[in-house]
């Protein structure tokens, strides 16, 4: 088959995804939606656990867990007493807008302030697929090395927030955290950068405060009950 | 567009890749080819640097570096005085057999014992694309967490060797390395598992000896120049 055919089909797929993402955005217009991205093992689920422990008293949060096969992450999140729905892609390397649309009816959206969608662990493909979110946030473990923003720029360019995780290990590695921050700022000068350790909890409060500052001020999503 | 059309095109793409991979395997029949996989930041390039430092006196090694945009990894590898060719995928999340075929003429294959292809950092998509290699080997940093084999089983099932890297950080994390090994063995009982620290060099010798034991005994790939 020719390259042209491949490109054409990819283009159709993208268009279909964009249309569905727009519909999702409309459905979710009262809810602040964060698409959480990062490599396998960057610490997305642990960040989410820490975030829920801090936020559930202050906002109504729902979670969509994207994974290839297992429900391991959703099982962890369920302990926090929030509505959580698992999407298994069955081999697929990213979530798309239609997968999200299929599970939205499982949430009582009128009672949610915030929906966090934890994407499949992958620093490449998920950056390209709009799910209908308000923001993308990328989690990068500093143990992944300080060359990652330059090597995988798209996901850093498309993310409104970058969470640098596992700062507790910085002293045991050769990673230059200042260089990491500089490189992120060169790619995306507007990005909010958070330095955290999800293991110790350090820095997670600032990230949580920032998330809360993004909630939509509609008055239709009650924080009580 | 319908799901059916998408599946059909993917199937065509796979078939085209398989045909090209078979051709590559034929072209490379005198050369032991290792397709090196793993997440961003698992330590693939550092493992390769350690491997080259140990192997270049014992075998003729060539390297193909797969990256999305930069030549950073190829620049690092070039210091070891081995033939290295960079493939930039321009956004693509994995190498495919046609990309490899396009650069093979840049090597003097009759003078190579071994070709290492470092794939794009991604624990999902590269597992699905045969490049014409003899073996896949996956590098997993223990800082990625001990749940990764269960969550990303395909790449562990398809790899003949698993290199557990960053063992020097094990004591500073909550990772259970024994569980990690058990889970890998449950998915792939035949896998060779190596525990290494590419930072200190510990364990890399065993991995290098194993690589050498895979060289093809054709007598056509001289180790002397």
Question: What does the model show?
Answer:
The structure is a homodimer of 225-residue chains. In chain A, helix 1 packs parallel to helix 4 and helix 2 (44-55) crosses helix 8. In chain A, strand 2 (61-67), helix 3 and strand 3 (84-88) form a beta-alpha-beta unit. Residues 1-6 and 219-225 of chain A have low confidence and may be disordered. The first copy, chain A, has a single domain (3-213), classed as 3-Layer(aba) Sandwich (Rossmann fold), CATH 3.40.50.300. In chain A, 36% of the residues lie in helices and 18% in strands. Chain A has a 7-stranded parallel beta sheet with strand order 3-2-4-1-5-6-7, with helices on both faces. Chain A contains 8 helices and 7 strands; from the N terminus they run H-E-H-E-H-E-H-E-E-H-H-E-H-E-H. The first copy, chain A, has helices at 3-27, 44-55, 72-78, 97-103, 148-151, 153-157, 177-187, 204-213; strands at residues 32-38, 61-67, 84-88, 114-118, 135-141, 161-165, 192-195. Chain A has 225 residues and is α/β, with parallel strands linked by helices. At the A-B interface, helix 1 and helix 5 of A face helix 1 and helix 5 of B.
What is the topological layout?
The structure is a homodimer of 225-residue chains.
Chain A: H1 3-27, E1 32-38, H2 44-55, E2 61-67, H3 72-78, E3 84-88, H4 97-103, E4 114-118, E5 135-141, H5 148-151, H6 153-157, E6 161-165, H7 177-187, E7 192-195, H8 204-213
Parallel strand pairs in A: 1-4, 1-5, 2-3, 2-4, 5-6, 6-7
Helix pairs in contact in A: 1-4, 2-8
């Amino acid at each position: 088959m020719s390259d042209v055919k491949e490109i054409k089909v990819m283009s159709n797929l993208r268009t279909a995804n964009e249309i569905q993402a727009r519909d999702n955005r409309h459905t979710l217009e009262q809810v602040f939606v964060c698409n959480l991205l990062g490599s396998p093992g960057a610490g997305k689920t642990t960040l989410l656990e820490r975030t829920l422990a801090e936020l559930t008293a202050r906002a109504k949060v729902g979670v969509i867990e994207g994974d290839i096969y297992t429900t391991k992450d959703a099982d962890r999140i369920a302990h926090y007493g929030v509505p959580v729905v698992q999407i298994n892609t069955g081999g697929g390397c990213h979530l798309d807008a239609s997968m999200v649309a299929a599970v939205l009816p499982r949430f009582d959206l009128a009672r949610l302030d915030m929906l966090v969608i934890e994407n499949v662990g992958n620093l490449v493909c998920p950056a390209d697929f709009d799910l209908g979110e308000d923001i993308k946030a990328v989690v990068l473990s500093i143990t992944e090395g300080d060359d990652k923003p330059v090597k995988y720029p798209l996901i850093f360019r498309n993310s409104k927030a970058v969470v640098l995780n596992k700062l507790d290990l910085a002293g045991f590695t050769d990673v230059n955290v200042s260089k990491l921050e500089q490189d992120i700022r060169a790619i995306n000068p507007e990005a909010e950068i958070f330095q955290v350790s999800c293991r110790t909890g350090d820095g997670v409060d600032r990230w949580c405060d920032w998330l809360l500052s993004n909630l939509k001020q509609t008055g239709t999503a009650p924080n009580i009950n």
